[in-house]
């Protein structure tokens, strides 16, 4: 089956991986003209994403790209002093598995990715009856 996935951020390529693994021909379309680099924003992967990454066989690579952030500092509007917290303890309270990587880290894959392509949006908005 040929499948069109709209969006090449995080979920789109993961979906493409699994669909390809189960024998589907996948094309990922991204309306941005190039794969986005978000200017230094990080992505936190918690237990569910870590488990999926492990099943995909990419967890060691993801862990090797960890940012190593140890402290987080907040400055609330109207206050003079920042609040600093131990990131390990903070994230550890939310999940027993966590890694932070930069959002623009993307490598490999077997799906075709077309940047600057808006067809995914059109395909979902105007899909014929019976198409899911």
From TrEMBL:
Q: Which residues form the FAD-binding domain?
A: 2-89
- TM ranges: none
Task: Please name the Gene3D superfamilies in this protein's record.
Answer: D-Amino Acid Oxidase, subunit A, domain 2, FAD/NAD(P)-binding domain
Read off the InterPro entries from this record: FAD-bd, FAD/NAD-bd_sf, FAD_aromatic-hydroxylase
One Pfam family this sequence matches: FAD_binding_3
Record-given protein name: FAD-binding domain-containing protein
